[in-house]
Structure formats: structure tokens, C-alpha cells
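Sample pair:
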Amino acid sequence: MAETDVAPAAGGAKSAAPKRETGLRDLEINAERGEVSFKVTRKRNLTKDEKADGANVGKTTIEEVKDYTLKLSMSAAAGTEKRLGRTIGDLLRRAQELEFTAILNLFWTLCQKYHKAEITTLDQAGDLLDDCGGAVPFFEALKALDDINQAPAALTTAAATGDAPDPLAAQPGADGPGAPSSLPLDA
């Protein structure tokens, strides 16, 4: 239930303005790792032992505050693209059009780096997203991820103008990739 802030309206009368609550609390941005973390309150059923505990008499559920971290890992992104036959960019466009299957698939993908064992299905991703407050908090986290994962302006400008450095030119040797790697392929 959303709290309300009471603000004076024109003429001195007070009007209630809804204060939006989201399930994402303490949103932390780790630009160095390209990820965002947050806390969310989740309800879960009590275990048999917890029900037997005298402190939980008459209770069937308990609320827990849990930490979650979202990151677009290459493996999860590639797996999602292969499974759906769509690019992550296509999913992002569809999510912006509020296609909920795209939102769920993106959220599931972002959970896989750190929560793969807990979030194994789209239904579980949907339950977590509901506990977070739905699409609005998801888009807030997605915006934060997008902001910290942008290429530096100098690189995007150089790529657009064709002035980007040639990675092969930086390699040893005059005509290409340089010396072969000494790392074994099965390591």
C-alpha cells in the first residue's frame, strides 16, 4: 500500500499525492563491473521447522529481504538469442513496446550471471519481477545498466567516422595477427 505525501495545493488546501514505491531498494550501480544490485522484499512459505518454532505460531509465510544483482553476461545473452531466435537488441525494442514476454526474457537473462540456481524459469523470473514492483522498477534498473555499459564517446565517434584503431595493426608483425598463441586450446 503506497504511502502518500500531503502537499499544499493552490489556495492552501492539502491534496494527497501518491508516493511511488518500487520493490527495488538500495539500487547500487557498479560501473566497473557493468552491473546493478538492489534489495527486494520477498515472501516465502515457512518450512516445517520454522512453523514448529514458537515465534511463528499461526504464520504460514515470512518476508525476507534479499539482494539481487543484474548483469548482461555474454553467455546468458547468447543463450537467450539462440533459444528465442532473436537478438538482445530486438528484445530491448520489444520490451520498450511493453511486450511482456520480451521483458520477462530480458529479466531472466540479466539474472543468470548470479542467480542461475534460483531463477531457472520464466515463471520464477516473473515472480521476482512482480516482487520488485513490475515493469517500472525493471526499466529503472535497465536504464542504469544501459548508462554504465555505453561505449566511451571517443570510441563511438571514431567508429562512426572510420577513425577507429585497427586491432590487427597493433599486433606484432607487419602483416596481421602476429605470433600464434602459446596457450593450449583445451586449458
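Residues 22-149 form one domain.
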